[in-house]
Automatic annotation (TrEMBL):
One of its GO terms (molecular function) is enzyme binding. InterPro entries: AROS (IPR023262). Belongs to the AROS family. This is Active regulator of SIRT1. The gene is Rps19bp1. Keywords: Nucleus. Residues 14-56, 99-123 are annotated as: Disordered. The keyword Nucleus applies. It is found in: Nucleus, Nucleolus. One of its GO terms (cellular component) is nucleolus. It holds the Pfam family AROS.
Length: 140
C-alpha cells in the first residue's frame, strides 16, 4: 500500500474540520529536497527516538555484554569429568601417542633418561684382602 493511498484513507476517517490547514500555513513541496527536510524535522520531533540505534536494533546493556564475554573457568567441571572415568589407558599406548604427536625438533624431544649406574662394588672379596695382607705385611 502506498503512502498516498494511506494518507487519503486517513483523511476520510478524520473528524470533520480537524484536518484542514489554513492556506497560509500550508507548505508547498516544490522539490524532493524539501520533502526530505520535512521528514527529517518530523523524525527529530519524536521524543522516544534514540539516535544511537540503527533501525531494528536494540540498545544492549554494557554490563550484560561484559558478563557474556567474561571468561569462564571450567576447571572443576573438567576435573569431575576426567576423574569420573575408571578406564586407564595402557602406558605403552600412551607413549606411542605422545611420540606421534611430538615434533622432530630437538626442543620437542623429551630429555634423555640417564642409565642408572650400579653401585660400584669392589672386585676383591674379603678373603683376597686377607691374603694380600699376609703377603705384603708378612703376618700370618
Amino acid at each position: 500500500m502506498s503512502a498516498s493511498l494511506l494518507r487519503r484513507g486517513l483523511e476520510l476517517l478524520e473528524a470533520p474540520g480537524r484536518g484542514d490547514v489554513p492556506p497560509g500555513l500550508q507548505r508547498e513541496r516544490d522539490s524532493p529536497r524539501a520533502a526530505g527536510a520535512a521528514r527529517r524535522r518530523k523524525a527529530a520531533q519524536q521524543p522516544g527516538r534514540n539516535k544511537a540505534t540503527v533501525k531494528g536494533r536494540v540498545v544492549k546493556s554494557a554490563i550484560e555484554e561484559y558478563h557474556k564475554k567474561k571468561p569462564v573457568n571450567h576447571l572443576t567441571a573438567n576435573l569431575k569429568y576426567m576423574l569420573k572415568g575408571r578406564f586407564v589407558a595402557n602406558k605403552v599406548i600412551t607413549e606411542q601417542v605422545l611420540a606421534q604427536n611430538r615434533g622432530r625438533k630437538s626442543k620437542d624431544q623429551p630429555p634423555k633418561k640417564a642409565a642408572k649406574k650400579k653401585p660400584e662394588g669392589t672386585v676383591f672379596t674379603e678373603e683376597d684382602f686377607r691374603k694380600f695382607e699376609r703377603e705384603y705385611f708378612g703376618r700370618p
